[in-house]
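Dear Dr. H.,

I hope your travels went smoothly. While you were away I took the liberty of generating a structure for the chain from your last submission, since the lab meeting agenda had it listed for discussion. I wanted you to have the full record in hand beforehand rather than looking at slides cold. The sequence, exactly as received, is reproduced here:
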Amino acid sequence: MTQAPMTARATLPVPIRSARRRLGAASASLADGSWDLFRMHDHLGQDVHGACLGLIGYGQIGRAVARRAHGFGMRVLHHDPYAPDDDLSTAVDLPTLLTESDVVSLHVPLTEETRHLIGARELAVMKPTATLVSTSRGGVVDEDALLHAVREGRLHSAGLDVYEHEPMGRELSPLVAEPYVVTLPHIGSATEATRAAMVDLAVDNILDVLAGRPARTPLPGSART
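The corresponding predicted structure, in token form, is as follows:
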């Protein structure tokens, strides 16, 4: 089983920054004609620069996000049983990551162990000014618990590119209508160059394994051959 680290290219500029600034709500107010006066308190978001980023999952995608986060002056923590400290991030336990992070970003595969890894209990210990970002697999987040946390003001915002049920068609998740949740249709890797690179990488992984060599981008904890 392998992964495509190119997905990291979209995590910081799209879900994280858009959710932190609550750009979805701001754009909606423009579209519906509500923007009629400049007010100092309108559409106040949270900064990315200088914030603490917590990465749950620290494989190649997580590390790629960490490298980009340093460009924004972010302090980076990670929780991953296979990854110790390195020069980009400090390894911590999950409770510490959840309570200290301003942004929690998920980069784990969906397994029985990670299904609903982020639920009501985990959301309850996050900062009320925090942002949850998921670009990995939808089932990692309990969407009902997330919906309640955002609606009740216990979580500042969320950015989602993946969902428990996708594609949605006309059966939209209620999260899509939430003004402080940025929702995208699983397009984190959707640029021409990135998709072409993903195909090339998949082929290279297959050829390596067939030739008896280790896969180039294995998931942490998975077999390399």
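Two observations you may find useful: The radius of gyration is 18 Å. The chain has seven helices and seven strands.

With kind regards,
E. W.
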